[in-house]
Sequence to fold (959 residues):
Amino acid sequence: MPDDIARASAAPAAQTGKRFSAFISYSHRDEEFGDWLHKRLESYEVPSALVGRASSVGQIGKRLGKVFRDRADLSAAHDLGREIREGLEQSDALIVLCSPRSCGSKYVQDEIRIFKQLGKGQRIFAAIIDGEPHAAGRPGYTAADECFPPSLIFALNHDGSVSSQLEPTEPIAADFRDGKDGRENGSLKIIAGLLDVGLDELVQREKQAERARRRRANLIAAAMGVLALGAAGAGGYAWYQQGQTAVARDEALANFNLAEDRAKAERLARADADVQRGVAETQRGIAVSEAEKARIQELAAIANAEEASAQRDAARNSLARIFAERSWQSMERGNYLLAARYALAGYRASKDIAEENDRAPANEGEYRSALGRILHDSNDSRALRGHADLVRSAVFSPDGALMLTVSDDNTARVWDVASRRVIAGWRHGFRLRVAAFSPDGSRVVTAAGSARVWEVVGEREIAAFGGDDRDVTSIAFSPDGARVVTGDSDGGVLVWNAAPNIPDGRREIAVLRGHGGEVTTVAFSRDGTRILTAARDGTARVWNADPNIAESQREIAVLRHEDLVVTSAAFSPDGARVVTASGNFARLWNAAPNVPNDRREIAALAHNDLVASVAFSSDGARVVTASWDDTARVWDAAPNVANDRREIAVLRGHDGAVWSAAFSPDGARVVTASPDHTARVWDVMSRREVATLRGHENGVESAVFSPDGIHVLTASADKTARLWELAFYDRDPNEGLNVHYYDETQRALELRIADANTTSVVDTASGREIAGLRGRIPTSGTYVSLSRDGSRIVTTTAADHVAKVWDVASGREIVALNGWVTTAALSPDGARVVTTSNDRFARLWDAASGREIAILGDETDAAMVTWALFSPDGAQVVTSRFDLERVNSPHTRVWNVRRLTQPLPELALAACANLLSPNGRRFSESEITGDPLIREVWLRDGREDRDVCEGVPGAPALE
Fold:
């Protein structure tokens, strides 16, 4: 479609005094796409370089402004015809979702006619989502395939009726169909039009804005702290709460369209994985200078010569090495998926060269180091693939053995944690909103129109309730699994008997009447005696769950929120308090009986933007809130605490909104999910980020801990869920560092000159000589460390900054490690050495050969690594950095040695099987266009769909 879509509309409504920047007109059968586009436009953050610019129709603001969509913006009690017309009058542009359904819709026709009659016909954008324009005149199509409504392409008569005369100009359109513009480019065309800027400029500004976001994110050093794994005593309740957290995040998103603060939205718009693979990957890709392009093309010309020569081999090896460089550059920019593609492609190219010349591949160490780091920083996650659309939520069963995922492809699936395989699944013919495990994990309840209960083993439906006339929006099992409570789109709340072998018509136990809008949350108290509900009518309510009391006595409390949508609500473990989310506040309430409703509010917990989810810790002492202000916050939930003393921690680090937050079973940690493609784990007391879970290709919808606190489960818009293992090093990192001469066995050592050619290493406590090292070593300014098995010693001397590894038995030097070394330590078995250096990195070495295994650190971290130690089992390394801005809070990080030292074929397989999605195994079009290394070397045979995992033994085949 032409670029001039950008110049066919007016400026954002926010800058012209109008209420709406656009009005979306569509058939209700296209509602799902309308929902997506509405959220995309309202959540879009204008690149800062464009903000404040004076365009032909006004000044560009930070947001597009509000977008009118009939279901979200029409009331239920007024003249809808009048409100439609007012909405069109107050809208700066009209966006028509064009499909065969809208082509035949009288309402869409009328909305286009009214907009044209208002004199704004040149401000209509066509968004083609299905069908074909001018279908009747095209081979293979019929009139039934037409997507353009007649009033869109034909001029109006003076009386407002549609004439037979075509408009003088073709309607400007963005084509969202597969194989055309797609969702991302299509939406950017619409956005460019609303901003009155050229599409090319908008894309360029987007790239600049993304680079700026990445720079900011990289300046926030990932504080990988040292934590003890929490006890799982409260795991059962944490499981119960995690389901509510996932549902709450979902409802916060769904209800945002009706919130008073509608102009506030996420920083990164949710979109499908293929959307992000286009523009977002370009934004975070490698910026290649013209000189670098020329160098690559020159090397490629030599490397692609038909005649073999030493010069050709050298050129090919140089190019293969650049792939490793690109991989590290991509990691520095936070794009680990692109980094994996570069590393795998370089590894394959290096193998191709080696096979042609019948020799071992060159540069293997560089690819192994890069892939090891990529997988290490991705926390060894395992992708759960199979869904065909966004995965909305993922939760563990109460015993942690199973996982349940819910997707916008209208399926729910149960996965085995150990094997990560699907063991049960159910497809629904209606929109699937939510699903939940029963307390014993043997059943699943789903909400898709009606509610249905299924047996996990056998996948048999054992109950159905709610009826086809109700759209069930929220569900929950009672703690004993005997009942299910449902909330629906009309405000209805019903309690049902969930036992098998009962006729569906006899399952209704109780009706809880009072809500006047769609129910967003339902939950039982921990003891099952009360029910909590929240709704779009601005209230949360607490009910008596006893079915035998009179209906008039069931309502215990009404928690009013000043007409704001209540997006999330949760009971405290003891049921005495409730926390709710509405607008920019979470509120803490007294849920006890016989308290006047106007005296129930305990505290208002403020954020700077919409609160997306709320949850109690398992002991009820704290509350965690997630917000679109880019933070999660932990609060003191005790009843008698002053409001200004409630905030315990602000968890800041996501590059975008925080969708959800959940406590670990012991309450010591919090996991957050964000549209910035990451989940993050935080230590509550230190307020530090202790793990960044990278690997998703799109926004993370939800994240929860397993009942034992060892795993995290995430759900993402990239159509996958991921299972992450949190392998923290359980040891005080400062232990044994107060004495200069301390070795890994915690013995104080001393160097003594034995003779002109020998230096003795002496245990100062016993006076016994441990080793006689052949050579004269300075006895002052030398660090000495003995491996735990006593086989090797490493020394580091301040005079030359060289680490030397010595054999204890013979006293001979095994290897010298250069690189301005400041400290060194041996693994317990003496097989590896970790060193620190003034270049801000720690390095892992093979102690026998002196080969560098891995670089531990980040290019963007300016703080110096002050020490590094192995864990007692040698499986991990702990590093600490000194930061002048955090003198009293050292920055520590734990590194997985097993992953960093894994053989290259195993790393390649792990990247192909677990990290990269099938689409992610090929370079995107934008990546190919931006880097001649990919075009000239990787794709030199002309196959643009070449798989970076081809030739990796065991890698799943692409379909």
Notes: Residues 235-269+389-725 form a domain with the Methylamine Dehydrogenase; Chain H fold (CATH 2.130.10.10). The chain has a mean pLDDT of 80. The CA atoms of residues 309 and 851 lie 29 Å apart.
